Amino acid sequence: MRNVITLYQRLLAKYPLRTQAVQAGILMGLGDEIAQNVIERRKFKDLDFKRTAQFACIGLCIAGPATRTWYGILDRYIGSKGGVVVLKKVCCDQLLFAPTFIFILLSVIGILQGNDIEHLKMKIKNEYPEILKNNYKVWPMVQLCNFYFIPLQYQVLVVQSVALLWNTYISYTTSIVRQE
Q1: Average pLDDT of the residues in 21-28
Q2: In a 3-state reduction of DSSP, which class is residue 113?
């Protein structure tokens, strides 16, 4: 286990964006698998591996790079230490990044599900408010702890670890609406 942690730290130091993109892809794919196996109670033969691959790709190509870049921007322009700094970061994160990212995430999921523009608009109209509301029940406290206690290079890992459950919720919510 120590070797895995050392390897992770080396990769994170040498390739921070790529490493965090890969970890986000793995954790988003895992979140979808948890949704299918645990919540939806699908049998192995009924698992939607295409859906899992799509979630993994969203993590790899969008979630990981976006969160890593965003946290770097916050750190550069707001700072990294102190209670007021942390509150400013959480406010920026929850008022700017979260609503935008959720909109993009739902749009990409809808496109990958094959929705046309009208169905995509309807899907976002139906799903976005509830998901954003639930975001505000979970993420402000997570980010408060993350920005206060966790060094910048590990913040994406912390968020993606908590997001394992969040991604399970997103996967389940967006797939249920799709199936109706």
Answers
A1: 95
A2: coil
